[in-house]
Amino acid sequence: MQVQHWIHAFRLRTLPLALSSIAMGAFLAAFYNVLKWDISLLAALTTVFLQVLSNLANDYGDALKGTDNQHRVGPERAVQSGKISVMHMRRAIIVFSALSLISGIVLISHGLRGLDARVSLLFLILGLSAIASAILYTVGKKAYGYSGLGDLFVFLFFGLLAVIGTFFLNAQFLRWDIWLPAASLGFLSTGVLNLNNLRDIHNDRNSGKNTIAVRLGIESTKIYHFFLIGLGLFSALTFNLLNLKSWIALLWLIPIVPLFIIDLIKIMEIKDLKLLDPYLKKLALKTLLFVLLFGICLVWS
After folding, report:
1. Residue 218 above 80 pLDDT?
2. Which of 52, 127, 181, 277 is deepest in the core (most CB within 10 A)?
């Protein structure tokens, strides 16, 4: 079994999006002068393990359910293609579940040192929930990705939990306005999933995978996508306006808004859904670019 097959199965192109949430939490911590580099790096490592776990579990679950087949539009999957066996993929899922748990425990023990044990217990429960969420999206008889709940879970775990959790582990306190940039990452991350589901809408419908895209239809899903991106940027802008110390904090709008609008226009015009695939990568990378520019302008201001 070649290493390149595993690297392909890890789907490294999904990591920038996952790390965007951690970067947002770290930038917010820096804005409030509570950034701890070791905590943020541990959070990033844990997120990488969780994202790879999610990718492997999706590969495994969709293959067993027959959703990954000759009609699939997206990139080739490892189990369905026979490049990685079901047994080996199952073992890899166990390994990355363990790595996520160990890394998460180390993160909690360092980030919450000195706080009430009940706070650590809460974070442990949230961490276990994140591991379960990564697996159960497509694995099991009641996989939530097959009943249209994928968008909600991505919003919660890639947005709210990742950003707010990273901030709290750095700061050991919470502000209500942190929920705005956290929601921003939730909306944009959900946008990536929505494009993925829009691209695969026909095969998903035929395979019984009732995503939001399948439920809404092509044209309504495009409108839904427009609102996801718009709400993502609006949430971040609202945070800026509530904490405005200098107009420098708003400079990220100049390059980011046109970049997102251009892609939205093109997505609305696309008829052949296969052509959506490059826009998943573009949105993931542009989300990371947005976080970097938003964070730099915020801290600079």
Report:
1. yes
2. 181
Q: Of the candidates 49, 28, 150, 63, which has an alpha carbon nearest to the alpha carbon of residue 94?
A: 49
**Calpha distance 89→68 (Å, rounded):** 15
CA distance 149 to 210: 9
What integer is the mean pLDDT of 57-62? 82
Task: Show the tokens assigned to 1.
Answer: 């079994």
Spatial neighbors of 241 by CB under 8 A, at least 6 apart, are none
Q: Tokens at residue 68, please?
A: 């990954």
Averaged pLDDT score across all residues of the chain: 89
Q: Using an 8 Å Cβ cutoff, are 132 and 157 in contact? A: no
| Extents of the domains making up the chain | 3-300
The DSSP code for 209 is: -
Spatial neighbors of 198 by CB under 8 A, at least 6 apart, are 213, 218, 221, 222, 225, 273, 276
Q: Is the pTM of this model over 0.85?
A: yes
For the beta carbon of residue 7, count every other beta carbon within 10 angstroms.
Answer: 10
